[in-house]
Amino acid sequence: KNQVGRNMTDPIADLLTRIRNALMRSKETVNAPYSKLKHELAKLLVKEGFLVSVKKVKKDFDELEITLKYFEEQPVIKELVRESRPGLRKYLSYKEIKPYKGGLGLKVLTTSKGLMTDREAIKKQMGGEVICRVF
Prior knowledge:
This protein is about 25% helix and about 35% strand. The chain has helices at about 10-25, 35-45, 120-125; strands at about 30-35, 50-60, 60-70, 70, 75, 80, 90, 105-110, 115, 130-135.
């Protein structure tokens, strides 16, 4: 299923899956093909404390190298779910955004001002496409 060069209809879902799989295998880092959106998403997860770090590395093509985060040998990320998909986009206005897992988790939205967490979106009164949710 993961052959190189397969048609990538949903690179974000691919990234989330790579992160989930690496966490299940207790890997320290995981690499994924680079894109600006994925880099922004990973940086947001670093800022929110779900990942240790992310950097762009040059190989045969640009890749993201993501350092995963654990606490007492358990992954910090318990759940990483793609919300909006190419086949089914999910948009929310800021009034519709509800705290996720009582505010312990977060949803990541793409807005006209870039990627932000559900909390930021509410504060800035901006809606957008819900990329994923993390807990």
